[in-house]
From TrEMBL:
Superkingdom, natural source: Bacteria
Species this chain originates from: Streptomyces goshikiensis
Pfam families the UniProt entry points to: LUD_dom
Residues in LUD domain copies: 98-207
InterPro entries: FTHF_cligase-like_sf, LUD_dom, NagB/RpiA_transferase-like
Protein name listed in UniProt: LUD domain-containing protein
Length: 210
């Protein structure tokens, strides 16, 4: 018997005789306060702005013109389009569409000016956007390499109050990306630098919130 077999055998015997894990109490507050859907959307917008994200509100009719204006204001000549993004979202945009492809290199993604995505959900109390790689979101890297990310959140359908309410709605087997504002870090002098681990500019469109 090899050392590997002996070690694995000990682990197997230990786990077979181990007592069941004790139940974890879940008696903490799941939501901090009662809010209307409009209040939840307002809290999300306030916390996103606190993290230096740019927040916009529009309805379905105004979405395409708004996205076109945001891309034009950025001077974006190209925009990365994940599979499943509703085509009408970018119908008014002048930027060249770049399709999300598995074979795209980081250098190719870095050459794209902007990316527009949807999301899995948003959390009001923490000002967090969650992506899970679903339709309209694409692979994780397409929202980490381009310098400008525009994310559309459907209100109120995709907005929850708190993290405890969000977790049961998410699939832990999917590639979850949690975004709270644009990427940023600080050195020992507390000088803030944005765009280190992701986009320098995050713009969030609350769709359906006026």
């Amino acid at each position: 018997m090899s050392s590997r077999d002996r070690i694995l055998g000990r682990i197997r015997r230990a786990t077979e005789t181990a007592a069941p894990a004790p139940a974890v109490p879940r008696d903490y507050l799941r939501v901090h306060g009662a809010r209307t859907p409009a209040g939840t959307a307002g809290l999300l917008a306030a916390n996103l702005a606190e993290y230096r994200a740019k927040v916009h509100r529009t309805d379905e009719d105004g979405l395409a013109p708004l996205l076109a204006r945001l891309l034009a204001a950025r001077g974006a000549g190209s925009v990365l389009v994940p599979a499943g993004l509703p085509p009408h979202w970018l119908a008014a945009a002048a930027a060249t569409r770049v399709q999300d492809r598995a074979e795209s290199t980081p250098y190719e993604l870095d050459a794209v000016d902007s990316v527009v995505t949807g999301c899995a959900l948003a959390i009001a109390e923490t000002g967090t956007i969650v992506l899970d790689g679903g339709p309209g979101q694409g692979r994780r890297r397409i929202t980490l390499v381009p310098d400008h990310h525009v994310c559309v959140v459907r209100v109120p359908d995709q907005v929850v109050d708190s993290v405890p309410l969000a977790l049961p709605l998410l699939d832990p087997a999917r590639p979850l990306t949690w975004i709270s504002g644009p990427s940023a870090t600080s050195d020992i002098e507390l000088d803030r630098v944005e765009g280190v681990h992701g986009p320098r500019t995050l713009e969030v469109v609350l769709l359906g919130a006026q």
